[in-house]
């Protein structure tokens, strides 16, 4: 490929004053300026302190010097002169005023590509008067003329699409947090200080924080930020009125937050509106600080733990969250902070933001220059060093979708029963996230689910038939055919039984177009244990298997059981589940670093007959006779205090003081790593038990029932016992807990090594990539 000159990229922004949007622009401009593929400049209307930082990094800056609000003609002429001199290939506007100006400049500067930047989750235009409202309405009317629109939050994308912004040009690239600057620091003591950081403005909703503080008398607060003097005085007066003034320390805006964040016990964000992607939350999380946030913008997605998210404006709920945090012991606080740090590192780094934005801007520039297949050209440039410094991070890691090849062989339609909590749903999400080269559309037969947003963040289109569970409707069938015809997939992936059945319906409807691959995700001991509708589908699939090119199973036992029922053995392909070692082993402490504590045993999984919680609890009751301090952690859907069947069983077995019901959790890697022993008590139905592999990947010893391929997965790294035998389960647990700590640790390490060698996520991704490409 002939060498191409650098892309001339000009950022356009109103000012370079202190603010989250300005900080992100500076971070992005500095990083892209260090790439050979770009020649970066920044044009701003008003001066600001960040200008010096940009110049120090070698970024050209041009201040137009808008003199006052009505300096319009002279200002615009000066702006045109500067922009024509820069002759950009791409103008990247930041915030609404600059976005409009970028569009006006387009015909006057050689028709560069225009990328708009959206940095909020809803407008506050009304607070800026008539001109603010007019500017917002013009943005809505003219948004279709932008070549690409980048929002930093999914909430912002959704809001502006509802205002008329075009979905086809809209991408989401979350902010990047500089994890080289915002880093964890060793903490010796733990206290009760909650902090708020941000400008003093009604959007931040300080009153809710102060009222919650008044409800938690043992808590103290630090409020950092500057703003309107009248608002500040009003907030300080409110603190006096609520009787918390002596517990609140007020500080002006600071530029040393990287050093300040780690001194907080927890950070609180109470934003009432407008927050897209909260830099303050991200920075604190990168510093391994626990956070509590209102459900505004993408804060709930960023925090990724419903325990620490409250409804905006609800000071009572916030107070309950603060009290719950103060009740945590130091170890739990540390794990919470570590989880936050890992989430930022895995999803929201500067590197990922820079590469995702770079893909978009470079692709726009290449299309302007008439270079075809822009994404492939970008990859070639990166491989050749023209985009130096970018590690092997998928451009879609942050949810942005780079321009795709029109090659139909990469269109994949996944049809699944649902996207709620479960191992099959999690595996589907991991596969799609790990194969960004393909264009993924997911149709869920039922609505909603835990994995809808993670799939969208990975760049997949997610559609729902909104079908009641187990009750197909004509409307759902019509939507299925309509979606499938629009997608025109090259591969139709049926996921679980009902998804496989629907995949065949799509194949027939599309007159044979598209390869069908079935994916069976469970073992099959007794059809009478299945629901009537599921059993009917399972029996019908052998008759429909002629339409499937391949049938994948995630366990050897599952394959044999289904083949015995008539599923064609010639089409069988074994693809066991894979585990992300970086995710599951990232929190495993060394044996030396584990503090002494009573044995902690975990059983994770949704509350169903398949998981057989009664056998586990019966074994626990036997075990506490020898281990009176034993603690049992139970987590999963419906595994909480609202489940009367479960709580009554715990009371009957006199285990109330030993059992903690955690419900559905998003921090299972951390919780798993804290265990001395993990248990799987399943009675039937398991094909390849994820909970066993996850514990092994976390270097935690496992005791499990002999169901599905559990014995194959574990090898000789744990203990296998018969199903529905509480005594055998208790004996096996006791045997492992009585091992010397060093031997128990070695057993866990052995399990982790087995996962690494035989069941890595990368090997699964390779298998599925081959399926999608070659079969």
From TrEMBL:
Residues 394-406 have a biased composition (Polar residues). Keywords: Glycosyltransferase, Transferase. Pfam families: Glyco_trans_1_4, Glyco_trans_4_4, Glyco_transf_4. Residues 19-181, 422-578 form the Glycosyltransferase subfamily 4-like N-terminal domain. This is Glycosyltransferase subfamily 4-like N-terminal domain-containing protein. InterPro entries: Glyco_trans_4-like_N. Transmembrane segments: none annotated. GO terms for molecular function: glycosyltransferase activity. Residues 385-408 are annotated as: Disordered. The keyword Transferase applies. It comes from Brevifollis gellanilyticus.
